[in-house]
Amino acid sequence: MNHYLVFLEQRGGVVKQASLELWNMLQAYVARQEACVLSGLLLGAVNLQQLDGKLHGDGRIFYTNNPCFDGYNAEYDVRLIAETFTQQACTALFFADTVLSKELAPKLSIRLKASLLSGVPQFNQSGCDYGARRAVYSGAAFALLQPECAPKIYTVSSFPTFVANPSQGQREFIALDHNSPSLSGGLLAVASQLVMCQGAKDLTEADIIVAGGRGMGGADGFVLLERLAELLGGAVGASRPVVDEGWRPHSEQIGQTGKSVAPALYIACGISGSVQHLAGIGAAGTIVALNTDRHAPIFDVADYGIAGDVHFILSKLIDAVQDVLKRK
Ligand SMILES: Cc1cc2nc3c(=O)[nH]c(=O)nc-3n(C[C@H](O)[C@H](O)[C@H](O)COP(=O)(O)OP(=O)(O)OC[C@H]3O[C@@H](n4cnc5c(N)ncnc54)[C@H](O)[C@@H]3O)c2cc1C
Questions:
Q1: What is the mean pLDDT of residues 150-176?
Q2: What pTM did the predictor assign?
Q3: Count of domains forming the chain
Q4: Domain that holds residue 149
Protein backbone atom coordinates (compact mmCIF):
# COMPACT_ATOMS: atom_id res chain seq x y z
CA MET A 1 0.00 0.00 0.00
CA ASN A 2 1.16 3.52 -0.78
CA HIS A 3 1.19 6.03 2.03
CA TYR A 4 1.95 9.63 1.03
CA LEU A 5 3.04 12.15 3.64
CA VAL A 6 2.64 15.87 2.86
CA PHE A 7 4.63 18.42 4.82
CA LEU A 8 2.15 21.22 5.57
CA GLU A 9 4.53 24.15 5.93
CA GLN A 10 3.48 27.06 8.12
CA ARG A 11 4.96 30.44 8.84
CA GLY A 12 3.74 32.58 11.71
CA GLY A 13 0.96 30.09 12.41
CA VAL A 14 -0.47 30.30 8.87
CA VAL A 15 -0.29 27.19 6.70
CA LYS A 16 1.12 28.05 3.30
CA GLN A 17 -1.27 28.11 0.37
CA ALA A 18 1.21 26.07 -1.69
CA SER A 19 1.09 23.25 0.88
CA LEU A 20 -2.73 23.27 0.91
CA GLU A 21 -2.81 23.11 -2.90
CA LEU A 22 -0.30 20.26 -2.87
CA TRP A 23 -2.47 18.26 -0.46
CA ASN A 24 -5.56 18.84 -2.59
CA MET A 25 -3.75 17.93 -5.80
CA LEU A 26 -2.48 14.67 -4.28
CA GLN A 27 -6.03 13.72 -3.32
CA ALA A 28 -6.74 13.38 -7.04
CA TYR A 29 -3.87 10.87 -7.42
CA VAL A 30 -4.83 9.02 -4.23
CA ALA A 31 -8.43 8.67 -5.45
CA ARG A 32 -7.21 6.91 -8.61
CA GLN A 33 -5.33 4.21 -6.68
CA GLU A 34 -6.85 1.24 -4.93
CA ALA A 35 -4.61 1.19 -1.90
CA CYS A 36 -3.22 4.58 -1.12
CA VAL A 37 -3.65 6.93 1.83
CA LEU A 38 -2.65 10.51 2.42
CA SER A 39 -1.39 12.05 5.64
CA GLY A 40 -0.19 15.52 6.51
CA LEU A 41 2.41 16.75 8.97
CA LEU A 42 2.11 20.13 10.62
CA LEU A 43 4.86 21.40 12.92
CA GLY A 44 4.44 24.46 15.14
CA ALA A 45 1.76 26.47 16.89
CA VAL A 46 -1.10 26.52 14.40
CA ASN A 47 -4.82 26.96 14.93
CA LEU A 48 -6.12 23.79 13.26
CA GLN A 49 -9.49 25.40 12.52
CA GLN A 50 -7.87 27.44 9.76
CA LEU A 51 -7.77 24.21 7.75
CA ASP A 52 -11.57 23.89 7.73
CA GLY A 53 -12.84 23.95 4.18
CA LYS A 54 -9.33 24.25 2.76
CA LEU A 55 -8.23 20.62 2.79
CA HIS A 56 -10.13 18.20 0.58
CA GLY A 57 -10.61 14.45 0.86
CA ASP A 58 -9.78 11.94 3.59
CA GLY A 59 -6.60 11.82 5.57
CA ARG A 60 -4.84 12.09 8.87
CA ILE A 61 -2.99 15.19 9.96
CA PHE A 62 -0.18 14.65 12.45
CA TYR A 63 0.65 17.80 14.36
CA THR A 64 2.64 19.16 17.26
CA ASN A 65 2.68 22.59 18.80
CA ASN A 66 5.92 21.90 20.63
CA PRO A 67 7.74 25.25 21.11
CA CYS A 68 10.80 23.72 19.36
CA PHE A 69 9.04 24.59 16.11
CA ASP A 70 8.16 28.19 16.89
CA GLY A 71 11.39 29.56 15.43
CA TYR A 72 13.31 28.44 12.38
CA ASN A 73 15.29 25.31 13.14
CA ALA A 74 15.56 22.92 10.23
CA GLU A 75 17.32 20.29 12.36
CA TYR A 76 14.23 19.74 14.52
CA ASP A 77 12.02 19.66 11.43
CA VAL A 78 14.22 17.03 9.80
CA ARG A 79 14.26 14.88 12.91
CA LEU A 80 10.49 14.85 13.40
CA ILE A 81 9.62 14.48 9.73
CA ALA A 82 11.98 11.49 9.45
CA GLU A 83 10.60 9.95 12.62
CA THR A 84 6.95 10.36 11.52
CA PHE A 85 7.72 9.10 8.01
CA THR A 86 9.33 5.94 9.38
CA GLN A 87 6.82 5.28 12.17
CA GLN A 88 3.86 5.65 9.82
CA ALA A 89 5.48 3.43 7.17
CA CYS A 90 5.14 6.13 4.53
CA THR A 91 6.27 5.47 0.98
CA ALA A 92 6.64 9.00 -0.36
CA LEU A 93 7.16 12.43 1.13
CA PHE A 94 5.93 15.61 -0.58
CA PHE A 95 6.89 19.24 -0.10
CA ALA A 96 5.70 22.37 -1.86
CA ASP A 97 8.80 23.74 -3.59
CA THR A 98 9.54 26.53 -1.13
CA VAL A 99 12.76 27.99 0.22
CA LEU A 100 12.43 25.81 3.34
CA SER A 101 11.90 22.64 1.30
CA LYS A 102 15.19 23.28 -0.48
CA GLU A 103 16.90 22.80 2.87
CA LEU A 104 14.75 20.03 4.32
CA ALA A 105 14.31 17.72 1.32
CA PRO A 106 18.03 17.00 0.63
CA LYS A 107 18.72 16.45 4.34
CA LEU A 108 15.79 14.05 4.57
CA SER A 109 16.87 12.31 1.41
CA ILE A 110 20.18 11.45 3.10
CA ARG A 111 18.59 10.54 6.42
CA LEU A 112 15.87 8.32 4.90
CA LYS A 113 18.09 7.04 2.05
CA ALA A 114 15.38 8.25 -0.31
CA SER A 115 15.36 9.30 -3.97
CA LEU A 116 14.78 13.03 -4.31
CA LEU A 117 13.12 14.74 -7.27
CA SER A 118 13.10 18.47 -6.70
CA GLY A 119 11.14 21.27 -8.39
CA VAL A 120 8.69 18.85 -10.03
CA PRO A 121 6.41 20.93 -12.26
CA GLN A 122 4.17 18.12 -13.45
CA PHE A 123 3.64 14.47 -12.54
CA ASN A 124 3.14 11.76 -15.09
CA GLN A 125 -0.59 11.52 -15.81
CA SER A 126 -0.77 7.98 -14.43
CA GLY A 127 0.23 9.27 -11.00
CA CYS A 128 3.14 10.44 -8.95
CA ASP A 129 4.63 6.95 -8.67
CA TYR A 130 5.26 7.02 -12.40
CA GLY A 131 7.67 9.90 -12.32
CA ALA A 132 7.55 13.50 -13.41
CA ARG A 133 7.89 15.63 -16.53
CA ARG A 134 10.18 18.64 -16.59
CA ALA A 135 10.91 21.08 -19.41
CA VAL A 136 14.56 21.09 -20.51
CA TYR A 137 16.58 23.03 -23.10
CA SER A 138 14.57 26.17 -22.44
CA GLY A 139 11.29 24.40 -22.97
CA ALA A 140 12.28 22.82 -26.31
CA ALA A 141 11.94 19.28 -24.88
CA PHE A 142 10.57 17.38 -21.91
CA ALA A 143 12.57 15.08 -19.66
CA LEU A 144 10.81 12.18 -17.95
CA LEU A 145 12.22 11.79 -14.47
CA GLN A 146 11.87 8.62 -12.46
CA PRO A 147 13.00 8.28 -8.82
CA GLU A 148 15.74 5.65 -8.60
CA CYS A 149 14.54 3.87 -5.50
CA ALA A 150 11.97 3.90 -2.71
CA PRO A 151 11.24 5.76 -0.54
CA LYS A 152 10.71 8.86 -2.63
CA ILE A 153 10.79 12.55 -1.84
CA TYR A 154 9.32 15.19 -4.13
CA THR A 155 9.31 18.95 -3.97
CA VAL A 156 6.48 20.11 -6.21
CA SER A 157 6.47 23.49 -7.92
CA SER A 158 3.01 23.70 -9.46
CA PHE A 159 -0.41 22.40 -8.66
CA PRO A 160 -3.15 21.94 -11.25
CA THR A 161 -6.48 23.00 -9.77
CA PHE A 162 -8.21 20.16 -8.00
CA VAL A 163 -11.94 20.31 -8.46
CA ALA A 164 -13.70 18.73 -5.54
CA ASN A 165 -16.22 19.48 -2.91
CA PRO A 166 -14.23 20.61 0.16
CA SER A 167 -16.98 19.33 2.43
CA GLN A 168 -16.29 15.81 1.15
CA GLY A 169 -13.95 13.61 3.12
CA GLN A 170 -12.84 13.56 6.70
CA ARG A 171 -9.64 14.67 8.31
CA GLU A 172 -8.45 13.17 11.58
CA PHE A 173 -6.03 15.21 13.69
CA ILE A 174 -3.45 13.26 15.65
CA ALA A 175 -1.15 14.97 18.16
CA LEU A 176 2.45 13.78 18.07
CA ASP A 177 4.22 12.83 21.26
CA HIS A 178 5.81 15.91 22.83
CA ASN A 179 8.47 13.73 24.42
CA SER A 180 9.55 12.32 21.11
CA PRO A 181 13.22 11.28 21.17
CA SER A 182 13.63 13.45 18.07
CA LEU A 183 13.11 16.54 20.14
CA SER A 184 15.56 15.73 22.90
CA GLY A 185 19.29 15.36 22.72
CA GLY A 186 21.74 17.61 20.99
CA LEU A 187 22.33 21.25 21.71
CA LEU A 188 20.06 23.07 19.32
CA ALA A 189 19.19 26.69 19.77
CA VAL A 190 18.28 29.53 17.45
CA ALA A 191 20.55 32.42 18.43
CA SER A 192 18.82 34.95 16.20
CA GLN A 193 16.45 35.01 13.31
CA LEU A 194 17.02 37.27 10.36
CA VAL A 195 13.83 38.35 8.61
CA MET A 196 14.45 39.83 5.19
CA CYS A 197 12.05 41.87 3.12
CA GLN A 198 9.24 41.79 5.64
CA GLY A 199 5.87 41.85 3.90
CA ALA A 200 7.37 40.77 0.57
CA LYS A 201 5.99 37.57 -0.93
CA ASP A 202 8.09 34.60 -1.90
CA LEU A 203 8.03 34.50 -5.73
CA THR A 204 7.66 30.74 -5.93
CA GLU A 205 4.48 30.88 -3.84
CA ALA A 206 2.90 34.05 -5.20
CA ASP A 207 -0.49 33.77 -6.88
CA ILE A 208 0.11 36.99 -8.80
CA ILE A 209 3.47 38.17 -10.15
CA VAL A 210 4.12 41.54 -11.72
CA ALA A 211 7.46 41.18 -13.49
CA GLY A 212 9.60 43.82 -15.15
CA GLY A 213 12.22 43.65 -17.86
CA ARG A 214 14.70 46.02 -19.46
CA GLY A 215 11.75 47.94 -20.85
CA MET A 216 11.13 49.36 -17.36
CA GLY A 217 14.04 51.66 -18.12
CA GLY A 218 15.75 51.53 -14.73
CA ALA A 219 15.38 50.75 -11.05
CA ASP A 220 12.96 53.68 -10.61
CA GLY A 221 10.52 52.10 -13.05
CA PHE A 222 9.97 49.28 -10.59
CA VAL A 223 8.17 51.61 -8.18
CA LEU A 224 5.12 51.20 -10.43
CA LEU A 225 5.47 47.42 -10.36
CA GLU A 226 5.78 47.41 -6.57
CA ARG A 227 2.66 49.53 -6.27
CA LEU A 228 0.64 47.27 -8.59
CA ALA A 229 1.91 44.12 -6.86
CA GLU A 230 0.99 45.59 -3.49
CA LEU A 231 -2.55 46.43 -4.64
CA LEU A 232 -3.05 42.97 -6.13
CA GLY A 233 -1.44 41.15 -3.20
CA GLY A 234 1.29 39.80 -5.47
CA ALA A 235 5.07 39.73 -5.78
CA VAL A 236 7.55 41.53 -8.03
CA GLY A 237 9.71 39.52 -10.45
CA ALA A 238 12.40 40.48 -12.94
CA SER A 239 14.19 39.35 -16.08
CA ARG A 240 17.92 38.64 -16.05
CA PRO A 241 19.19 41.93 -17.54
CA VAL A 242 17.33 43.75 -14.78
CA VAL A 243 19.22 41.74 -12.19
CA ASP A 244 22.52 42.04 -14.08
CA GLU A 245 22.06 45.83 -14.13
CA GLY A 246 21.53 45.76 -10.37
CA TRP A 247 18.02 47.23 -10.61
CA ARG A 248 16.58 44.29 -8.64
CA PRO A 249 18.01 41.49 -6.43
CA HIS A 250 18.83 38.09 -7.88
CA SER A 251 16.13 36.50 -5.67
CA GLU A 252 13.58 38.09 -8.05
CA GLN A 253 15.03 36.71 -11.27
CA ILE A 254 12.70 34.46 -13.23
CA GLY A 255 13.82 32.09 -15.96
CA GLN A 256 16.32 29.43 -16.86
CA THR A 257 18.97 30.72 -14.47
CA GLY A 258 16.47 32.18 -12.03
CA LYS A 259 13.31 30.87 -10.45
CA SER A 260 10.52 28.82 -11.97
CA VAL A 261 7.20 30.26 -10.94
CA ALA A 262 3.59 29.13 -11.15
CA PRO A 263 1.30 32.08 -10.42
CA ALA A 264 -2.33 32.15 -11.49
CA LEU A 265 -1.63 35.56 -13.08
CA TYR A 266 1.70 36.72 -14.58
CA ILE A 267 1.97 40.32 -15.77
CA ALA A 268 5.09 40.77 -17.93
CA CYS A 269 6.04 44.45 -18.26
CA GLY A 270 8.71 45.48 -20.77
CA ILE A 271 9.89 41.88 -21.13
CA SER A 272 10.64 40.64 -24.65
CA GLY A 273 9.90 36.96 -23.92
CA SER A 274 13.20 35.19 -24.63
CA VAL A 275 13.20 31.38 -24.38
CA GLN A 276 15.35 31.65 -21.28
CA HIS A 277 12.76 33.83 -19.58
CA LEU A 278 9.83 31.71 -20.75
CA ALA A 279 11.50 28.63 -19.27
CA GLY A 280 10.62 30.02 -15.85
CA ILE A 281 6.94 30.77 -16.48
CA GLY A 282 5.78 27.56 -18.20
CA ALA A 283 3.48 26.77 -15.26
CA ALA A 284 1.92 30.25 -15.07
CA GLY A 285 -1.84 30.50 -15.53
CA THR A 286 -2.96 33.64 -17.33
CA ILE A 287 -0.17 35.73 -18.89
CA VAL A 288 -0.64 39.41 -19.58
CA ALA A 289 2.06 41.22 -21.59
CA LEU A 290 2.76 44.96 -21.84
CA ASN A 291 5.25 45.93 -24.54
CA THR A 292 5.81 48.69 -27.09
CA ASP A 293 6.88 46.18 -29.72
CA ARG A 294 3.78 44.39 -30.98
CA HIS A 295 6.02 41.71 -32.55
CA ALA A 296 7.76 40.88 -29.24
CA PRO A 297 7.77 37.08 -28.66
CA ILE A 298 6.08 37.52 -25.29
CA PHE A 299 2.84 38.19 -27.17
CA ASP A 300 3.04 34.66 -28.65
CA VAL A 301 2.54 33.15 -25.19
CA ALA A 302 0.37 35.87 -23.67
CA ASP A 303 -3.36 35.40 -23.09
CA TYR A 304 -3.83 39.18 -23.11
CA GLY A 305 -1.52 41.77 -24.59
CA ILE A 306 -1.36 45.55 -24.54
CA ALA A 307 0.95 47.22 -27.05
CA GLY A 308 2.18 50.53 -25.68
CA ASP A 309 4.42 52.30 -23.22
CA VAL A 310 4.63 50.34 -19.99
CA HIS A 311 4.80 53.40 -17.73
CA PHE A 312 1.64 54.86 -19.21
CA ILE A 313 -0.26 51.55 -19.12
CA LEU A 314 0.84 50.73 -15.58
CA SER A 315 -0.27 54.15 -14.27
CA LYS A 316 -3.71 53.62 -15.82
CA LEU A 317 -3.86 50.05 -14.50
CA ILE A 318 -2.94 51.15 -10.98
CA ASP A 319 -5.65 53.85 -11.04
CA ALA A 320 -8.21 51.32 -12.28
CA VAL A 321 -7.30 48.74 -9.63
CA GLN A 322 -7.44 51.43 -6.92
CA ASP A 323 -10.91 52.44 -8.11
CA VAL A 324 -12.14 48.85 -8.00
CA LEU A 325 -10.69 48.32 -4.52
CA LYS A 326 -12.26 51.55 -3.23
CA ARG A 327 -15.67 50.43 -4.43
CA LYS A 328 -15.34 47.09 -2.61
C1 LIG B 1 22.41 30.81 -20.56
C2 LIG B 1 21.44 31.95 -20.45
C3 LIG B 1 20.58 31.98 -19.38
C4 LIG B 1 19.66 33.01 -19.26
N5 LIG B 1 18.80 33.02 -18.20
C6 LIG B 1 17.85 33.97 -18.15
C7 LIG B 1 16.89 33.97 -17.10
O8 LIG B 1 16.90 33.14 -16.18
N9 LIG B 1 15.92 34.91 -17.10
C10 LIG B 1 15.85 35.88 -18.07
O11 LIG B 1 14.94 36.72 -18.01
N12 LIG B 1 16.77 35.90 -19.04
C13 LIG B 1 17.77 35.00 -19.10
N14 LIG B 1 18.70 35.07 -20.08
C15 LIG B 1 18.73 36.27 -20.93
C16 LIG B 1 17.76 36.19 -22.09
O17 LIG B 1 18.37 35.59 -23.20
C18 LIG B 1 17.27 37.60 -22.50
O19 LIG B 1 18.40 38.39 -22.82
C20 LIG B 1 16.49 38.32 -21.43
O21 LIG B 1 15.44 37.50 -20.97
C22 LIG B 1 15.90 39.60 -21.97
O23 LIG B 1 15.38 40.34 -20.93
P24 LIG B 1 14.32 41.48 -21.18
O25 LIG B 1 13.13 40.91 -21.84
O26 LIG B 1 14.13 42.20 -19.89
O27 LIG B 1 15.12 42.49 -22.12
P28 LIG B 1 15.00 42.74 -23.67
O29 LIG B 1 15.11 41.51 -24.45
O30 LIG B 1 15.96 43.85 -23.96
O31 LIG B 1 13.51 43.27 -23.87
C32 LIG B 1 13.04 44.48 -23.40
C33 LIG B 1 11.63 44.63 -23.95
O34 LIG B 1 11.08 45.81 -23.44
C35 LIG B 1 10.31 46.44 -24.46
N36 LIG B 1 10.24 47.84 -24.13
C37 LIG B 1 11.23 48.79 -24.21
N38 LIG B 1 10.77 49.97 -23.75
C39 LIG B 1 9.49 49.79 -23.41
C40 LIG B 1 8.46 50.63 -22.87
N41 LIG B 1 8.68 51.92 -22.57
N42 LIG B 1 7.25 50.10 -22.64
C43 LIG B 1 6.97 48.80 -22.92
N44 LIG B 1 7.90 47.96 -23.42
C45 LIG B 1 9.13 48.44 -23.65
C46 LIG B 1 11.05 46.15 -25.74
O47 LIG B 1 10.18 46.22 -26.85
C48 LIG B 1 11.56 44.73 -25.47
O49 LIG B 1 10.65 43.77 -25.96
C50 LIG B 1 19.63 34.05 -20.23
C51 LIG B 1 20.51 34.00 -21.29
C52 LIG B 1 21.40 32.97 -21.41
C53 LIG B 1 22.34 32.94 -22.60
A1: 77
A2: 0.71
A3: 2
A4: 2-183
